[in-house]
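Check the record.
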Amino acid sequence: MSQLGSPHLHFRSIGSTNERACELALAGAPHGTLVSADEQSSGRGRQGRQWVAPAGSSLLISLVVREPPPLLALVAAVAVAEVCGPAAKIKWPNDILLGSEQAPAAKVAGILCEARPQQSWAVVGIGLNAALNLALLPSELRGRAATLGLRSEERGQLLERLVGEFERALALSEHELLALWQQRDALLGEEITWSAGELSESGTAIGLGTGGSLLVRRADGSELELNSGEVHLTTADN
């Protein structure tokens, strides 16, 4: 397999790096192919959301991964958290949170994995607020987004670090990966809510289960594995 990050296609502006990377993967692009952009006009997040990022403010990348490991989403989360620093936390399933003594934890990065198991490839999309000016965000996003506070021109170095961390995380054993993930678990021991059909349930997050699922304990003591969907902290919606 080729080294991650090569070949590298960079766009000043693109609809979606994930969409382009998926097209390239379908056309036979090798493992490690990287698509990046300064700006996306229709960047995708989970649950059909749009990723909002002013031009030059964020690291917007997608990687083609051939023969992806089962815990690819956890690999990506650990890699992104590592470049965000020791204070970064991972909110299952795909958000990286960053806070400080002066500010509560808020979303600094999001991850979107799109897999084609029958074709043995996946695309990992990452949006990381590297140089985002929080004051320029729409009012509804203020207080919910964080930034690394870098200069726009520092995104190239950050990309190199992220690709390196991703490569290291891919080489970890499952035990090593889970241990690193759990050290940064933002939900462990927290009261959370999640949707169950048209109903909302609540419980306490108690760690990761098989295949990267989220384990929760209901008030009656029963335990449940969440394999997909979205969860919210009872005290704050990050």
